[in-house]
Amino acid sequence: MRLHHIDLNQFIESHAQKKGSIWNSIPPKRAWNSMAYTLRVIDRIAREMQAGTVEVISAYRNPAYNGACRGARANSYHLQNMAADVKFPVRASKVTAIARQLRDEGLFRGGVGGYWGFTHIDVRGENVNW
Fold it and tell me: How far apart (Å, rounded) are the C-alpha atoms in residues 83 and 19?
């Protein structure tokens, strides 16, 4: 996969995180391909913004780790390896607006959530904002 604005090592490193005594893990092999589409979407958003490299806050989460994440839903798309929380070197509100615009233009179907300091992007198949 050719990506221009994403360092794949950041996605791998995002799996080596700990909340309290609970460690995250790499996704099960059956879910590896699920992230490819999400990565292409995020790379395209980064290209549109001309904002440099993406920082990955969170990608796949195992169930125990997801449960330890404040505000995480039990049916989070992170559990299916179809979501990522990312940070760009621009305001998160700008990232969220551009992600929603590109989604509404047909780049992908999924969720875009704006938070202070980062944006959640997933490819769930239906458009949702928060």
Answer: 19
Cα–Cα distances (Å) from 7 to 47, 70, 106, in that order, read 14, 26, 25
Q: Kindly report the number of other CB atoms within 10 A of residue 64's CB atom.
A: 13
Indicate whether 64 belongs to any domain.
Answer: yes
Q: Tokens 């780049």 correspond to what residue? A: 107
Q: Per the structure, how many domains does the chain have?
A: 1
How many CB atoms neighbour CB 116 within 10 A? 7
- Residue 13 C-alpha from the chain's centroid: 13
pLDDT tens for the chain, 130 residues long, are 788 888 888 888 888 999 999 999 999 999 999 999 999 999 999 999 887 778 899 999 999 999 999 999 999 999 999 999 999 999 999 999 999 999 999 999 999 999 999 999 999 999 999 9
CATH number, residue 100: 3.30.1380.10
CB-side neighbour CA atoms (13 Å) of 106: 0
Q: What is the pTM of this model?
A: 0.92
Angle (CA) 50-60-63 rounded to 5° is 150
